[in-house]
Description:
Blueprint: E1 5-12, H1 29-48, E2 52-59, H2 68-75, E3 79-82, H3 88-102, E4 108-111, H4 120-130, E5 137-141, E6 147-152, H5 171-181, E7 186-188, H6 198-207, H7 212-217
Parallel strand pairs: 1-2, 1-4, 2-3, 5-7
Antiparallel strand pairs: 4-6, 5-6
Helix pairs in contact: 1-2
Amino acid sequence: MTGDVTTVVLAKAPVPGRVKTRLCPPATPALAAAIASAALLDTLDAAAGVPGATVVALTGDRAAATGAAELAAALAGLDVVGQRGDGLAARIAAAHADAAALHPGRPTLQVGMDTPQASAALLRRCADRLAEPGVDAVLGPANDGGWWVLGLNDPHAAAALAGVPMSSDETGARTLDALRAAGLRVVTAEPLTDVDTAEEAVAVAGEVPGSRFARAVAALPARCPEVPA
Length: 229
């Protein structure tokens, strides 16, 4: 990889009742928050394996989060900024801009906390693609129609996402169209599954055995139809 990047993790404090609500049922709000906490911590570990810096764009009450002490330890020494902006697209653009202000001259590689299977090696491959000649952006599609990673050589180009509907089955395609309409040369990364449902959580946990995320998902009640016995 030619040069460092700033890995941006867009995250929400894992407070019961405020994260991963689509896991309930079969999960309780407390278990859903524990799964979200594990996903975030695994994602921060992966980000730490990418040369450069990590910026965490965080919203929510860290003190009320499940695993608050472990989260505080993981965030120690990292750049943490508050999410800002009206709507998810604006918050994404602001996170890239804030990362650029903290670490000028570096590309940004942004992920969320819904793909704990995104390893440090995978993130490094995305950064490598971003460093290739003739590439301005890297976009990783998600299997639900969204996307899981956005890399930009010019972090301010994230402003192109204004008007793109988020959290829909058209988000990935519309994001790709918006980036290209802004004149960016985009390559795609491998698709991943976003974790929203219990079935998705179990499937992704199977990809990362031994992880915090897999251990948390193992607590889902096996009697529920989404979870194999």
